[in-house]
UniProtKB/TrEMBL annotation, chains A, B:
<dbReference type="Pfam" id="PF01565">
    <property type="entry name" value="FAD_binding_4"/>
</dbReference>
<dbReference type="GO" id="GO:0005739">
    <property type="term" value="C:mitochondrion"/>
</dbReference>
<dbReference type="InterPro" id="IPR006094">
    <property type="entry name" value="Oxid_FAD_bind_N"/>
</dbReference>
<keyword id="KW-0560">Oxidoreductase</keyword>
<dbReference type="Pfam" id="PF02913">
    <property type="entry name" value="FAD-oxidase_C"/>
</dbReference>
<feature type="domain" description="FAD-binding PCMH-type">
    <location>
        <begin position="34"/>
        <end position="199"/>
    </location>
</feature>
<dbReference type="InterPro" id="IPR016166">
    <property type="entry name" value="FAD-bd_PCMH"/>
</dbReference>
<dbReference type="InterPro" id="IPR051264">
    <property type="entry name" value="FAD-oxidored/transferase_4"/>
</dbReference>
<dbReference type="InterPro" id="IPR016167">
    <property type="entry name" value="FAD-bd_PCMH_sub1"/>
</dbReference>
<dbReference type="InterPro" id="IPR004113">
    <property type="entry name" value="FAD-bd_oxidored_4_C"/>
</dbReference>
<keyword id="KW-0274">FAD</keyword>
<dbReference type="InterPro" id="IPR016164">
    <property type="entry name" value="FAD-linked_Oxase-like_C"/>
</dbReference>
<dbReference type="InterPro" id="IPR016169">
    <property type="entry name" value="FAD-bd_PCMH_sub2"/>
</dbReference>
<protein>
    <recommendedName>
        <fullName>D-2-hydroxyglutarate dehydrogenase, mitochondrial</fullName>
        <ecNumber>1.1.99.39</ecNumber>
    </recommendedName>
</protein>
<comment type="function">
    <text>Catalyzes the oxidation of D-2-hydroxyglutarate (D-2-HG) to alpha-ketoglutarate. Also catalyzes the oxidation of other D-2-hydroxyacids, such as D-malate (D-MAL) and D-lactate (D-LAC). Exhibits high activities towards D-2-HG and D-MAL but a very weak activity towards D-LAC.</text>
</comment>
<dbReference type="GO" id="GO:0071949">
    <property type="term" value="F:FAD binding"/>
</dbReference>
<dbReference type="InterPro" id="IPR016171">
    <property type="entry name" value="Vanillyl_alc_oxidase_C-sub2"/>
</dbReference>
Amino acid sequence: MTICDSFVGWSAWEVLKPTSLTNTTWTSCLGTKVSAVLKHCYHRRLAVVPQAGNTGLVGGSVPVHDEIVLSIKKITSTFLFDDNSGVLDCDAGFILEDADVRLAKDGFMVPIDLGAKGSCLIGGITATNAGGIRLIRYGSMHSHVLGMEVVIPDKHGTVLKLGSNLRKDNTDLHLHKLFVGSEGQLGVITRIQMQTVPKPNSVQSAFLGVHSFKQCLAILRTAKQMLNEILSSFEFIDGETMQMVEQNAGLRGPLSVNSVFPFYLLIETSGTESVHDLAKMDQFLDKCIDNELAADGVLAKNVSEAEHLWKIRENCSLGLRQDGYVFKHDLSLPLEHFYELTEQIRERLCGTNARRVCTFGHLGDGNAHLNVTTPKFDEGVYQRLYPFIYEWVVSKGGSISAEHGIGRLKREYHHKLLDPQRRMFSSNIKRLFDPRMILSPYKMID
Amino acid sequence: MTICDSFVGWSAWEVLKPTSLTNTTWTSCLGTKVSAVLKHCYHRRLAVVPQAGNTGLVGGSVPVHDEIVLSIKKITSTFLFDDNSGVLDCDAGFILEDADVRLAKDGFMVPIDLGAKGSCLIGGITATNAGGIRLIRYGSMHSHVLGMEVVIPDKHGTVLKLGSNLRKDNTDLHLHKLFVGSEGQLGVITRIQMQTVPKPNSVQSAFLGVHSFKQCLAILRTAKQMLNEILSSFEFIDGETMQMVEQNAGLRGPLSVNSVFPFYLLIETSGTESVHDLAKMDQFLDKCIDNELAADGVLAKNVSEAEHLWKIRENCSLGLRQDGYVFKHDLSLPLEHFYELTEQIRERLCGTNARRVCTFGHLGDGNAHLNVTTPKFDEGVYQRLYPFIYEWVVSKGGSISAEHGIGRLKREYHHKLLDPQRRMFSSNIKRLFDPRMILSPYKMID
């Protein structure tokens, strides 16, 4: 049962406009309704899964047994924007793309951008600390979330106002930061105050073909130095992924016909002045070619060419899906080990039913999406992959979840790998907010 | 007693280099020593105040009664920098400026910059979530801290490794964020992993004279639009503060002789390409003058002129100190109310012994340093100021502490103003980490 949808007239409920966000007596009407639901569930010991856009890839917002799904989709009454400070104060149910369209009228945007922007919700990207393609420039949700309203699954269904709508506020513990990336373990986020950024006037996109991974890293260093403040994306696609995109998604790479490379990079800048940005991008590309870091490259001449480059990147996942069953991964790795794992897994899966081992991802942030395809689910490949892959990642100082979170899928490995002392502190914090452990059970924290 | 100084050879202790930061069995030797101290204090119920550079302005690192001062000044064995990722992994005792000098060799810098950089420590700016003059560009310490080692004042003196040295890591609750800005209430931070940023090649500084506060806000909006990605500081000085700087610090303003303005702005950009940045700054200044937003302005022609402009800004506090006793404030205010309070307080103190009511600060972040001077401490002025000023700030949706924290000084008002429910959650979280309430007592959390 989806509780939210079962209420008649939910979307018509009015929200009291706060006279002041730090006025502690103020609570939104929608917060009050969520409070009533959580209070009821507390007293009846009913398990609850908060659900935003349900676009997550680790099953975090999906019920495991008989949990009640508490959708926040219709919590969309309040949308206040202050164009002096650039601070957005909105309900958690707004779709990221819709929020962006509204902000664009004032020349601003949400700093986070990801493939699911058309269906993921502001509340969901906060609860999962979503990453995406512009993190290298703007940072994660921790850099943007200033405050929130959150409903606690305790005996009162307590509604807490944490943080504020101020860019600088050093009063009390920064409790709102605890809810960023908490995956619905501690409470239900119903409203968010966040910093937005001015929308860039000039966006430049380039696509490079590269012979070695070492050269990819040298190009990243060069981009950080030469593009610095305008660098907004640094994406990586290996040759095998590219082949899948061309074959299965029917998209042609933009580089010279017949030239095939083991690595490709999609680099984007965002700035205020296209003449300046183009000059910087030209100098950067010249340096990459002159120093023989990149073998080939193109700069998108217009919006439609840039869109084509991003279409290639966005179709990496889709292209692989058509290759059969996909063992997907979302890993964070120190850059020197970023591609080493792909090579290791290729060796390890030699002689099995694995079709392809390939990686794409956000190289600028050390985030590798390593994928293994097989004709159909294959127990032999599964056994060769796990727990080897996660243990290898941890042994190199990496993370088994860069941006997708733990949810249901990575729960087992997460529990095995986490320091027991730290796990105890996490559990105790959960118990503080969720004394009957009714919120998002069977997932990140048991 | 300062515990750290009483240990012989502390600075000579070696630190084990971790093979992996997420290797949960690893603990630095210094962390182990701090652990022994806290464990001892737990069992003997001795109160402890962790102290970093002791540069705070609210008495957070000063003992109130008979607490033991645990200095982290000598925790300076490890300084590891990865120039691929730009991640710094260092002990908490490094002085901010010293860390910056080391990073400069690789072309990087700590994103945070503040007046006390010559004596504040990396551990201290993390524990207080320090702000400073570049926050408008790079965000607060929450945007930069990726992980930390922290020692908990429990019966084991538990050493926790929280977060990691990875830019993207969505595993477990983001507990390290709870320690940023916690003012030593939960544990002692002994080591930090943080994102640094490439050092800019080009820095441009301008100083403007402005007739009205409304025009100051219009200039801020224009700067955000036109300077956007290179805007790194937007500082505000009112006429009365400027007069004090000229009189008491012996510094001359850079604008035309005989021109006196009610407001001054110091605006700085940081970027990679001086030709581009100068062109942007020129266009921006032209727009400010042509649209009659600014009445007068200069652009620093060289480093020494820029240094002079910053000397004026840095001497605001000093200039006022020589005017007598100073009632200082560190307020966050929605921009539309930023200067209203100064005018209100001027009216309110009419007929008292107050000499001056003036404000300078980080307008770009809504952070007002409002100051009231009197010949010597004045009870009448005190009574007219408090609690009025804090209640006014809160009624407008502001914060009584923007960047300085609560410490000892703002404790009373903080406790009065905070929502009791939220206060209870903060207290319970403190109790979780600090069961005997021995760490930093009589301050933010009672």
